[in-house]
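Aim 2 progress update. The chain analyzed this quarter is reproduced below.
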Amino acid sequence: ILVSFSRLSGISGTIGMIRIGYVNGWNIGSYIQPILKKLRLEYPGVKVSLEAYNLQELSARFQMGQLDLIITLEERAAKIYDAQTFVIDTAPEVILFSNTLFRNKKKNWKPEDFRKETFFVLADDREDMQAEYIRTIGSKYGFVPNFCSVNSMESILMNVENGLGVTVCNSWVRNVYTQGFQCCPLEHSVQIAAAWKQPEDLRRPLLKF
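Predicted structure tokens:
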């Protein structure tokens, strides 16, 4: 994907700031680093701010014009009025857990192995949908999952890291590839998208993919 900024909001020439928002807890490095490299070459005077928010706040700040570009779930981006979107990845979902959770060090984990574990979910507007999805997993594999709602992704990851339970997440969550964590693959995936607003005039950011 080739991204170029030809004009930047509220600035002229090659001096200004681009604000890029992403979902708290995600690892966006592999996607954003090539973009930043190209940006530094073409617009050396432009500064970039990377800002992490939960899904709700990310969409809200973008709609209020506080962010120029966001990286989020495609299902979220599609609901934002007047936003241009581009799907950048299809991310498989997994059950994320700590190496300390089980004494057994087997590699081929299955969803039914987590029947006795607590599933941590984020207390936001997707909580009911996420809980229902996990119930569907449990029903398919013969168990009724236990839930615990927490206030932030950071809280979820800290609980999982310390062996207090597990969580269902997509492969963009940073801990999926972090030492000390393991994953059990699921038969579902989500689409990750970049979103930006179509410029109202030539001073608004233009992105080409």
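The first helix runs from residue 29 to 42. The beta strands are 16-23, 46-53, 69-73, 83-98, 118-122, 146-150, 167-170, 181-197. These observations will guide the mutagenesis experiments scheduled for the next reporting period.
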